[in-house]
Structures are given as structure tokens and as C-alpha cells.
Amino acid sequence: MDPDPVLASSGSTICALCSAGGRASRGVIRVSGPLSRGLLERTTCGKEGAGQEGLKPQSRGVFEGQFNDGLGLCPVLVIWMPGPASYTREDVVEFHLPGNPYLMQAALRRLLELGARSAEPGEFTRRAFENGALDLTRAEGVLALIESANEEQRRAASALLLGGLGRRMVSLRECLDDLRSLLEASLDFDQNDTGHVPEEELEALFQRALEKLHAATLWESARDAGADLQRVVLAGAPNAGKSSLYNALMSSAPDSMPALVDPLAGSTRDVRRGELSLGTGRVTLIDTAGVGPLQDPGETALSGTPDARAQERARKEVQAADLVLWVLDGGGEVPKGLDPPGLLVWNQIDRTGVSKEPPGGLIRGARGWCAVSAQEGQGLESLRKIAAELLGLAPLAGRAGPRPSEGEALGRQLRARHLDALRSARQALAESHQLKAQAAPLDLVAEALRGVSRELDAIEGSSTSEDLLDRIFSRFCLGK
Ligand SMILES: Nc1nc2c(ncn2[C@@H]2O[C@H](COP(=O)(O)OP(=O)(O)OP(=O)(O)O)[C@@H](O)[C@H]2O)c(=O)[nH]1
Ligand SMILES: [Mg+2]
User: Fold this and answer.
1) Which of 19, 34, 151, 340 is the most exposed place for a label (fewest CB within 10 A)?
2) Is any atom of ligand 1 closer than 6 Å to the C-beta of 36?
3) What is the pLDDT of residue 205?
4) Which CATH superfamily does the domain covering 5-130 fall into?
5) What is the pLDDT of residue 297?
6) Could you confirm whether domain 164-223+405-474 is CATH 1.20.120.430?
7) Helix, strand or coil for residue 448?
8) Domains of the chain: which residue ranges?
9) Which DSSP category does 79 fall into?
10) Predicted local distance difference test score (pLDDT) of residue 347
11) 237 CB near ligand 1 (under 6 Å)
12) What is the DSSP annotation of 283-320?
């Protein structure tokens, strides 16, 4: 059948099955675009069936009726969401039908005959993005949510979806706008050298913008830092050298904050995490407070004290670890065993009198061992190699290591994209601030400030290349 000429002339309306294929109690078809209302009226009738008029909802809501796929009627629940208060900001209608694949196909065919076209994967979300209903970070949140495979990924996706980064960007932009207007208002004074440039106010705004940019960067790097990475936890008795080892392993990672190292036992209280390249992949390396197989229950900190809470957190990290690196001070007391078994890291071998190997009994209870000096950097390569093997990240001869799933790779790429843009924005802001400090002409300062906005545009998608948009949206499933 040819598309209905009246309906088809009105523009592009998309439809897709947005529930899983196969038999289910319900199947859902979603339609978005200017024809939505006409399609609803033409394919439905009231609950009583034949002879009744099509459903004509007066307002947003859920309506019961019958769907006519051209062959017969079947019960339908219609959700009518007129634009602009809909996901795509267009008129949207959802048909909830009995979840029979043949019925769904017939219903889709009917909608196509009447002038809708099949949606591309992600096209609903792309329309939402193009119609300004959500920025790119939130669209990415939808994608991350669809692809999340565990609780942490799901939490990270929800945070994106709720606009965690987007919200921080709004407040950063407000601050930049204030800064720009004040700069522009000051241009005249600057040129006439009347000495009325509000120096203090400008400086305060620069500082505020720098802080907000820093906060957005921190949020983004913490958002799902390693949500999908394996966790490697440094654990052991106080003062064994866990934090020293953390710093030694992380020394090659840019932007990593070193952990506090101190001869005083109990210097680490908070858990510290960083992303570390290991073998063919990346892991989250986690430094914890001193606690471990050495800890005599009589010795444990009094409950409720900061020490006790720190040790409790450390135990939780050990429980959730993919690999525990049990750090032992080679010259210290030797525990009877390691629970749970992990990689035994015999530390401080640079000290005189410390044996180069742990006792055999301990080795037998471990998943592997190595002797290192965190302080001198000895043995770290061997540690990395054994840890990579235990985590399945060792390069295999003639074969590439395990490849991250496509979704994981895209998620990582998106986060890297945000962090790159935030880094460039920070550079541009620092440059503008420096120009101001050097008393450069204010129009140069303002121009450098525009560079900050351009970077932010890239994150929110207003200046993202079509190619990247295509790649992002094509990862969505059909009907989303
Ligand atoms: N000689 C030597 N000293 C080390 C080595 N590793 C750590 N230390 C020293 O041991 C002390 C404790 O080191 P940390 O890294 O803070 O130990 P930690 O296990 O993190 O300690 P807590 O956080 O208190 O549990 C510091 O004075 C370090 O300089 C090592 O390989 N050789
Ligand atoms: Mg420590």
C-alpha cells in the first residue's frame, strides 16, 4: 500500500520496536515526529472495537483502545506524549501491544504504510539531542546505561544521565559569562587608560572559574574511573610499605596524586585509587589503611574510632578485590597465612639483613610472589608481570591481549574526550588569566577566554563533529 499522501507529506516521523524481540507479555512500538498524532488516530479505535473512531487524546496520558494493523484488531495501551514535553521534544506515541512478534511486525508494517519510516539505532536520542532536550553528556549517559554490565557502571551511567557533568558545566559557563561581560565592560577603561578596570572583581571571577573547572574535571575523572576495570588492592600490616609501593607503581601515570608515606604506622586512612596500565590492559590500583593477616584481634583499633573505620574500609576493599597484593615488610613479623590468597609482595629487600625470599610456608598459600623494594624500585617489573598474568592481562605470544568490549571501549573514549576537552579548557583559562596578570590588552584576555567556551562546546556537543555524533548514536540499540 502507498503511504497515505496527506500524512506522508508532513515530514519525517520515525518508528521502531523498542522492547526486546520475541514473545513477551507486552511489546512496545515507539513513534516520534509530526505524524504521531495522525498515526495514532488512524491505527486505533476505542475499546469497544469496530465502528469506533480513532483515539483522540486531548492531553498527555495513557489510553486504552484497539489497534488496527489492517488485518484485524488487538487491544492496545497508548501512551501519548505531545511535544515539546516529550523525550524527543516532538509528538511521541507509544503503542503497548500483546508481545507477539507477528503482531508487532504487522503493527510496524501498518505504521510504515501510513508514512512513518524505520528509525535508525539511537535516532530517538539523537533527535532529543538535536532538539535541545539533552546535551551530549546526558545522551552518553543513556548509552552508558544501556550498556552497563554491573552495578558500578550503572551508577556511573545514572550520574551522567542526571547531568552530573552537565550541571557543573552550566555553573562554570555562568561564571565565564560573568567574567566575559566584566572584561568587555572594562575594555573601554582599558583603552582610555582611565584606571577603572575592576581588578579585584576580575581576579575573583578568574579564581572562581578555575575552581569550577577543576571541580568539573575532578568529577569527571572520578565518575567512573575504572568502574569497569579490575581492582588491585594493596593490603597488609601498617608500615609494610603499601603507600610507597602505590607511589612507585603509579609514578608513570600522569595527574596521579601521590599517597602519603610516613615512618609512623597508620599514616594511610583514606582509600586512594588510581588507574594503572598493566600488561595489555588497565586496572584500578587501590591503597588502603594498614590492616591484615598480622593484625591480632586484640590489637585492632577500638570500634568507631577513625582507625577502626579506616581498617573497616580496607577490609571491604580486600573483599571486593580482583587481586590482593599482600605487602609484607621483609624484616617484620611474618603472618601465618594470607586470607584471601593473593600476590605476596616481599618488600624492603634493600634493607640490610632482610632475606631475598619470603618463607616457603607463606609462598605455598599465595597465588604468586615477588621480592621488591618499593623505595629503590627493585623488582617492580616482575611484580607487574606476575600481577598481569594473574589478572589475565599478560600479552600472549602471537596474540593480542583480551580486547575490551566495544561498549567499554566507547565509554572509555568518551571519558577521555571529556577529560581532554576539560584539560584544554583549563589551559585556555590559565592562558587568559596569565595574560591578565601580565597586563596584556583586555581584548586579548577576552579572546583567550573564548577558547575556554569552545572547549566546553565540544563536551556538550554543540561543536562535535558529525562523524563522532554518528558513532556515538549508532551504538544505541534500535528504539532508543
Ligand atoms: N628501606 C625501605 N623503606 C621502605 C620501603 N618501603 C617503605 N619504606 C618505608 O617504610 C615506612 C612506611 O611506608 P609506607 O609506604 O607509608 O607504609 P604503609 O604500609 O603505607 O603504612 P600505613 O599507611 O601506615 O599502613 C616509610 O618510612 C617508608 O619510607 C622499602 O622498600 N625500603
Ligand atoms: Mg600507607
Assistant:
1) 151
2) no
3) 94
4) Probable tRNA modification gtpase trme; domain 1 (3.30.1360.120)
5) 45
6) yes
7) helix
8) 5-130, 164-223+405-474, 230-390
9) E
10) 97
11) no
12) EEEEE--SBSTT--GGGSPPTTSHHHHHHHHHHHHHHT
